[in-house]
Amino acid sequence: VQPEQEGVKNICCVGAGYVGGPTAAVIAFQNPGIRVTVVDKDAARIRKWNSQHPPIHEPGLNEIVRVARDGTNAATIAIEGGDTVELPARQSNLFFSTDVARCVSEADIVFLSVNTPTKYTGIGAGAATNMVALEGATRDIAIAAKPGAIIVEKSTVPCRTAQIVRDTLEVHRPGVPFEILSNPEFLAEGTAIKDLLNPDRILIGSSQTESGLAAAAALKDVYAAWVDRSKIVTVNLWSSELSKLVANAMLAQRISSINSISAICEQTGADVDELAKAIGLDMRLGPKFLKAGLGFGGSCFKKDILSLVYLAQTLHLDEVAEYWTQVLTINEYQRNRFVQRVVRNLHGTLIGKKITILGYAFKKDTSDTRESPAVEVVKTLLADNPAEIAIFDPKCNPENVKDEIKHLFATTDTADSHKVYKDAYDASADSSAILILTEWDQFHYPPLTQKDSAFHKSDAPPQLNSTRPQKQATLEAEAALEADAALA
Ligand code: NAD
After folding, report:
1. In what helix (H) or strand (E) does residue 235 lie, and over which residues does it extend?
2. What is the CATH number of the domain that holds 163?
3. 446: cis peptide before it, omega within 30°?
4. Which of 42, 168, 228, 428 has the highest count of CB atoms within 10 angstroms of its CB?
5. Do residue 232 and residue 350 come from a single domain?
6. Residue 306 is assigned to a structural domain of this protein
């Protein structure tokens, strides 16, 4: 491996998902001299990346992809004070393809950015990571990669996965030199581009051999195109792999901590928002991740904690496993408390009632619904036979949401009692309760009360008209907001 001398000219990212797509796009955008190709087995996903509508919604993603994928003409732009700046023309250097073998074979650096879900969805015990995708992609890379290529774990993986990758490479290409790095991704969905452009840190784990350190230096150069070198931290492979699991576990732990305190607040008259502000002013604690609410969702926090618990169990560290399991227990407890409270406020039954759900994504500014608290809430509510569950989310595709809910239930009866709307007012009309389950900006008070606010808009054309019972919807939504705040 002699990346420093030769310089990185070609990068291939295997996996065009929420991490692979945006990460590769930003690397290409910031390194016009490097050819970056994102490959995926999912042809439909690749087609979308090659269209004007990427398969995922992230603020800023479209613009970055267009510049890097399509290239730009030279331009002169005006800046403050009457000065102008010349922007050079740039050629396309971001490509999306299904030809995994060819693209891998051309790359100096290959990112592994495939899905690493959990094998189990309950919380009673830890769960090993499902390594099927990672093992498959590693095999494909092992067969195709050129000698000396640097293989980078971008996926979140159990500690010591680099050894599995190394063994797989050795089985398929005995004696061929490859270097393996760990470079976990810390972006958060909804702010992926912002996080990638201005990361808190870039973490690179490598073996402490001469070639390992050289490979780390080559990857460091790629990031140094836009990230200050002082923010690029190099550590050993196992510290890097474990850091990602621990970072997510500790973020989730803060959410469960404040949510557990919200239960105490509700019975004592303390206000959890006031409390969060008061304790967050302590510089040792800081204000972030102290917002009580429905608990965390998304594809990462729960699975990474399950993976950490599993690791502790396999190391016979039972108390440690138990400690981290509690973070998940409180998360589920909080969601159940919310649903129970809704049902209690509706006189103990949902039968014959319409319940509106505003927000279905697991957080604002994303269309991702994986492990969304809303999914679990809808599931529990539907079990109580409401007349209708009416769902509106500004970014989630209504057809996808409808299909997803159908899959949650075995009986067609229950599946039929939910409807997905393209308009928040339609979803809210004649509802007994409006539950705001994703904190999209347009659901925030006070815009909610303004007649022509963005409240109702989805990606579909807005359908607000004068016959809609706006006032009723607005009042109910306000009431729901208050109830939500009370719970929080
Ligand atoms: P994803 O499911 O959106 O994307 C993974 C992609 O990999 C899929 O499109 C799949 O088709 C593709 N794939 C699987 N096997 C393949 C193979 N052999 N060849 C080619 N393509 C293959 O997953 P994601 O959300 O992007 O997550 C990827 C990894 O990043 C996971 O390990 C996850 O834990 C981690 N991560 C995710 C986030 C997040 O916010 N989503 C943040 C940080 C880290």
Report:
1. strand 232-236
2. 3.40.50.720
3. yes
4. 428
5. no
6. no
CB atoms within 10 A of CB 32: 17
Measured by CA distance, the residue closest to atom 17 of ligand 1 is 137
Describe the strand order of the beta sheet including 179-182 as a list of residue ranges. Answer: 94-97, 35-39, 10-14, 109-112, 150-153, 179-182, 202-206, 232-236
Domain boundary among 208, 237, 266: 237
- Residue 297, annotated as binding a ligand: yes
| Same structural domain, 360 and 223 | no
pTM: 0.86
Known active-site residue 265: no
Question: Do the domain assignments include residue 269?
Answer: no
Question: pLDDT tens digits for the chain (488 residues)?
Answer: 444 446 899 999 999 999 999 999 999 999 999 999 999 999 999 999 999 999 998 999 999 999 999 999 888 878 777 788 888 889 999 999 999 999 999 999 999 999 999 887 555 566 789 999 999 999 999 999 999 999 999 999 999 999 999 999 999 999 999 999 999 999 999 999 999 999 999 999 999 999 999 999 999 999 999 999 999 999 999 999 999 999 999 999 999 999 999 999 999 999 999 999 999 999 999 999 999 999 999 989 999 999 999 999 999 999 999 999 999 999 999 999 999 999 999 999 999 999 999 999 999 988 899 989 999 999 999 888 999 999 999 999 888 888 888 777 655 555 568 899 998 989 999 999 999 999 998 887 645 554 455 555 554 433 333 333 333 333 333 334 333 333 32
332 domain-assigned: no
* Residue 367 counted as domain residue: yes
Choosing from 103, 159, 265, 300, the catalytic residue is 300
Question: Which of these three, 187, 202, 237, is where a domain ends?
Answer: 237
Amino acid symbol at 313: Q
Nearest CA to ligand 1 atom 6: 15
